[in-house]
Design a protein that fits this description.
- The chain has about 170 residues and is mainly β.
- Helices cover about 5% and strands about 45% of the residues.
- A hairpin with a 5-residue loop joins strand 5 (about 35-40) and strand 6 (about 45-50).
- The longest helix has 5 residues, at about 160-165.
Length: about 170
């Protein structure tokens, strides 16, 4: 199967007392996808990542239910746009919002977007205006800052005040 090697896969190790257990690959239902980019884990164990049948370009969710992962599901519109590329998600621990990068084409500059979980589903993604380029957003453990790659040799950061400022009414 896909977990036997020969391509990139997602692995997990369990904490056992003061040490880590042996790493093991996630099930083939997840690892059979050709690529996973920027895996983000919610507090409940749900995995969010970029993938797609041809590599990358869409956001996926593999739910952690009863101690096992379900088959990955393509996240719905408006998170995934049928024409644009969505990459490198970062899910809030409580899954109330998701940060990700979006580009019109692979040649364009990736920009940072945020969408919020609502009773009706995910909100229309909002562009974070003062972040000129962003790949792989990561929120610091204190939830005070977001750090992302601006280009192959530069990181940038900003405070997370935009998370509440852009939240729908």
């Amino acid at each position: 199967g896909a977990a036997d090697g020969g391509k990139e896969n997602i692995w997990v190790a369990q904490r056992e007392g003061d040490a880590w257990g042996a790493p093991r690959p996630l099930p083939d239902a997840i690892n059979s996808l050709p690529l996973h980019w920027t895996v983000s884990v919610a507090a409940n164990g749900n995995l969010y990542f970029t993938s797609g049948p041809d590599g990358i370009g869409d956001l996926y969710l593999a739910r952690f239910v009863d101690g096992a992962y379900s088959a990955p599901e393509l996240l719905p519109a408006p998170l995934n746009d049928p024409v644009k590329l969505e990459i490198t998600p970062n899910i809030a621990p409580d899954e109330t919002y998701i940060l990700f990068s979006r580009v019109d084409t692979a040649e364009d500059t990736p920009r940072l977007y945020i969408s919020y979980a609502t009773a009706a589903g995910w909100s229309e993604p909002a562009l974070v205006e003062n972040v000129p380029a962003c790949v792989s957003p990561v929120v610091t453990p204190d939830r005070g800052y977001v750090i992302c790659t601006a280009n192959p040799s530069q990181l940038q950061w900003r405070d997370t005040s935009f998370i509440e400022e852009l939240r729908p009414g």
